[in-house]
Hints:
Shape: globular
Largest sheet: 5 strands, mixed
Strand order of the largest sheet: 1-32-31-30-29
Structural class: mainly beta
CATH architecture of the domain at 1-30 and 214-344: 7 Propeller
Distance between the termini: 33 Å
Helix content: under 10%
Strand content: over 45%
Oligomer: single chain
CATH class of the domain at 1-30 and 214-344: Mainly Beta
Amino acid sequence: MGKRHSKHKRARSPLYEGVLTAVPVDDVRRYTPVHTEAVQSLCLVKDDICLSGSSDKSLVLYKWKDGTIMQRWTGHKKEITKVSHAVDSDAFFSASRDTTVNMWKRGTTQGGVCQNISQTFEGHDLVVTGLAVSLLNNQIICTGSRDNFLRLWDVETGVCTKQSAISRNLVTDVKWVPDQHAVAQTSEDKCLRLWDTRSLQESQIFPRKNYIQTCCDVSKDSLYCVTSSNGFSEQGCEATLWDLRTGKILMEYKGHTQTTCACAFAKTERPLVVTCSNDSTVKVWDRDSSECLSTHYLDGAGSLLSLAVFPDTSICVGSVNTGVHVLSFGTESGKVSLKKTATY
């Protein structure tokens, strides 16, 4: 169980009791894998459409409910580390170990391979490990790298408009704060930071954790941030809920036994947090009590590196060994259920 750090207490609901095991294998739709290597990053586009980036250097736009490849892009010289999408736009972005970020547009052939790069953003000296598109106007992207730099770029021109560096701030992830001139950023120095994008100056630094912070997500109401943690043998391995107004830790979600690689808020009526880990499990947590509501073990998948949570409560999870897995959660007999529905 996670530690309680808040006096705020929600009434227990029958929805938050128990765990449901996976559905029978025969009920899972199995599509041809779209990647040949580890799926490093996933991004929700809309409805049942997911953007994925892989160590195989390709970026794929995929409609998972009917198994349709809408577009595949290739062009990076090394593995893709992060992907992102401009809301209500046809622009897709990928960051890579080759130190560049590319912007892509749809090609003319449905499902075909497209190698036409619309824009390249060059300037980082090391692998790009953070990527976020502005939620205010889609005209700015924020990138972060192991070179300690955070950069802002003009989407149309590809020009770096602002940059800032902090010693030992090896960026692991970046997320734009909805409706604000701010980004949240995690780092190998074990810190969560907020940056003011108007000046690209650090506006807030949160208490240092004991382990590297691997990923972050910001709630739709801009009040909370969740981060995930590096770890091993049940030490570290947690996710942490932060109050962006006070800078305090509200909850820790403990239960994974290896590094928690990705975390996300579920955009549901009831506040939930979803995590995945190197221990091959996906977990759903009650945001406000830290109770683990359901766990699903993906046998043979190896480390789970990335996830994207859809409004219909579907979850796409990227793995090292077996591509992308689609899970869904809801209620069954008054309990939260988490079950696999498709793989691709």
